[in-house]
TrEMBL record:
The keyword Nucleotide-binding does not apply. Pfam families: Rieske_2 (PF13806). It comes from Pseudomonas oryzihabitans. GO terms for biological process: nitrate assimilation. The keyword DNA-binding does not apply. This is Nitrite reductase (NADH) small subunit. GO terms for molecular function: 2 iron, 2 sulfur cluster binding; metal ion binding; nitrite reductase [NAD(P)H] activity. PANTHER family: NITRITE REDUCTASE (NADH) SMALL SUBUNIT, PTHR40562. Keywords: 2Fe-2S, Iron, Iron-sulfur, Metal-binding, Nitrate assimilation, Oxidoreductase. It comes from the Bacteria. Residues 15-117 form the Rieske domain. InterPro entries: NirD, Rieske-like_NirD, Rieske_2Fe-2S, Rieske_2Fe-2S_sf.
Amino acid sequence: MTQTTTAHALEPRWQPLCSLADLVPQSGVVALHEGEQVALFYLPDTEQKVFAVGNRDPKSGANVIGRGIVGQLGPDLVIASPLYKQHFRLADGGCLEYPEQALPTWAVRLDGEQVEIS
């Protein structure tokens, strides 16, 4: 007997998180999503516009990433941790100085004036 299975790509499950008016351009705002603190960064001059990364700094354990400084190092848009100043890529959460450190990331999108997270 032969069994055939078909893999189906999972569609993202988009959920409203906040209003675009809740975000501050070039800065971080923290929201709670499914029990996790998510740092949202609104960069209106970029293609993606909004980025979502974990708010917990993996080096210190403190929930401070949303207070970090947004910048660009080479081609990477980054957030600098306010405590130890390590830089995390907004696109994938990877740390430039310490590859073993990373922030979780979430897919986010704008639906009109609504910020949605998946």
